[in-house]
Amino acid sequence: MRVLIIEDDPSVAEYIIKGLKESGYVVDHAKDGNEGLELALDGNCDLLIVDRMLPFLDGLSIVRKIREAELKTPVLILSALGDVDDRVQGLRAGGDDYLTKPFAFAELLARVEALLRRQESSVTQTRLKVGDLEMDLLAHKVSRAGQSLNLQPREYRLLEYLMKHAGQVVTRTMLLENVWDYHFDPQTNVIDVHVSRLRQKIDKEFDKPLLNTVRGAGYMLNDSD
Description:
This protein has helices at 10-22, 33-41, 59-68, 84-92, 105-122, 153-164, 172-178, 190-202; strands at 2-6, 26-30, 47-51, 75-79, 97-100, 127-130, 133-136, 141-144, 147-149, 211-214, 218-221. The chain is of the alpha/beta class. The strands form three sheets. Strands 2-1-3-4-5 form a five-stranded parallel beta sheet, with helices on both faces. Strands 6-7-8-9 form a four-stranded antiparallel beta sheet, covered by helices on one side. Helix 2 (33-41) runs parallel beside helix 3 (59-68) and helix 6 packs across helix 8. The longest helix has 18 residues, at 105-122. The model has no long low-confidence stretch (mean pLDDT 90).
């Protein structure tokens, strides 16, 4: 995840940058409002941390301009101005959260994580991809290496579940409960039959198999060697 910090106070910026990098984030830093707005409008960051009082262009103006540009990047506003009216102004300008200075880094990190979770949950996934295998969830189409694949409805549901859990072992119980809606094992080979049919369609005509049986555990859709 990439975070853009727009902060003119070197000590505050260093404090945040160090903590976020140690927490695994990629961090960019702008020292004034103009530079910050330019970087924010690039749309390459997953979250903005914006100081309210900045040289050249204040933080609330930055937030308004990126919202006018229809960017939905989450924004955490930082400010020494902590009255209710100040926080309301920040949120009405388009900020998603407001944290007053001074602050503990643990609280800032928790707010960053919450904003990113909220952003991820609001994004509707429309395409799935594992290697050269692609699924268009809107058009209800599947292709591999650009070649269209004709799947039956149950095969489509099975593949969708496997693609959403790519790289993970998917057990028979998981498939029964999530693809067939069974909450018990009916002692049937229905899963084996459908997996075999699906494997014929997505792997047989291609050099690299994607759908693998994990002996004694289940199945895994994986593009790695």
